[in-house]
Design goal:
about 290 residues; alpha/beta; 11 helices; 9 strands; binds S-adenosylmethionine; SAM-dependent_MTases_sf; protein methyltransferase activity; methyltransferase; S-adenosyl-L-methionine-dependent methyltransferase
Length: about 290
């Protein structure tokens, strides 16, 4: 029975990927994190459903995040640059930072930073247009033990994570989102960046399961970076020592670097590559 199930999976995914996923499936069943039978997991996986949606979780650094369709599954390349950012910048509880995460999805970026940075050193806020994402990010904050912001005195010594459902591209942002309180020391974002024309090149596990709003960044893929550059260029949105950290798609790094430089506020830029040698993150410092 087990042998037949594995053969079915390997026929679909190739032997190497099937071996990896077979282990994750069995680990999830053994640790009781998945209530589904192995047979059911393999059946759904062979229909193209991402394993993370079937099992309901995805490790992200030391965190184990909940994932639910159609919210984007946090990717290893994002995990890599977020850990690198946590080492490149070290906020302290003496002068805590304020961080805005645009298009927060599962909340993976601010939650990991809250987990890695010293307690009381950062207050983070995630905005997202999707109510599914906002709910999931709040559930993940609860699971990770990161409290929402409040005036409570003890929270001043804790890292916090708040969320706001809002359309970042609306001309009324951030004025109509009352909980968003600029200026920010750090802006992070892994925005939708796939150009429309690349829709047909996406694997089925992405195009049929993940929210198109999480994927497509307008005709050129750069729509959100243009809006972020306008936001950064506005008076009073960022502190004079602010940092912008933006994940980019393949081949977009130079254009995004140029966009944030033209704000006139960003004076130093860097491009970080991911573990696969692809230019993945543009860092801008004021
Ligand atoms: C590529 S996903 C990134 C999610 C998460 N930050 C991550 O790295 O896994 C982009 C996110 O932007 C959100 N989004 C799309 N359009 C938006 C808009 N106009 N305003 C705010 N959020 C938006 C999507 O709902 C999605 O959660």
């Amino acid at each position: 029975m087990q042998h037949r199930l594995f053969a079915k999976l390997a026929a679909q995914l190739g032997r190497q990927q099937a071996s990896l996923e077979w282990k994750w499936m069995n680990d999830a069943i053994a640790s009781d994190t998945s209530k589904n039978s192995l047979q059911d997991i393999v059946r759904r996986r062979c229909l193209g459903e991402p394993l993370q949606y079937i099992l309901g979780t995805q490790p992200f650094g030391p965190l184990n995040l909940l994932v639910r369709p159609p919210v984007l599954i946090p990717r290893p390349e994002t995990e890599h640059w977020v850990i690198k950012l946590s080492e490149a910048i070290r906020p302290t509880a003496q002068s805590p930072f304020s961080l805005l995460d645009i298009g927060t999805g599962s909340g993976c970026i601010p939650l990991l930073l809250c987990h890695l940075w010293p307690q009381g050193s950062v207050h983070t806020h995630g905005v997202d247009i999707s109510p599914h994402a906002i709910r999931l990010a709040n559930d993940n904050a609860l699971l990770a033990g990161i409290p929402p912001p409040s005036d409570g005195d003890y929270l001043k010594r804790r890292n916090t994570f708040g969320t706001t459902p809002a359309n970042f591209l609306a001309p009324t942002f951030p004025e109509e989102a009352m909980q968003i309180k600029p200026p920010f020391h750090i802006i992070t974002s892994n925005p939708p960046y796939i150009p429309w024309k690349e829709f047909l090149e996406l694997p089925r596990s992405v195009s049929e399961y993940e929210d198109p709003k999480a994927l497509f960044g307008g005709p050129s893929g750069l729509e959100f970076y243009e809006a972020i550059a306008r936001f950064v260029g506005r008076k009073d949105m960022m502190t004079s020592d602010g940092v912008v950290a933006l994940e980019v798609g393949r081949g977009q790094a130079k254009a995004v670097e140029e966009l944030i430089r033209t704000t006139g506020r960003v004076h130093h830029t860097e491009i970080w590559t991911d573990p696969w040698g692809i230019e993945r993150t543009v860092i801008g410092r004021m």
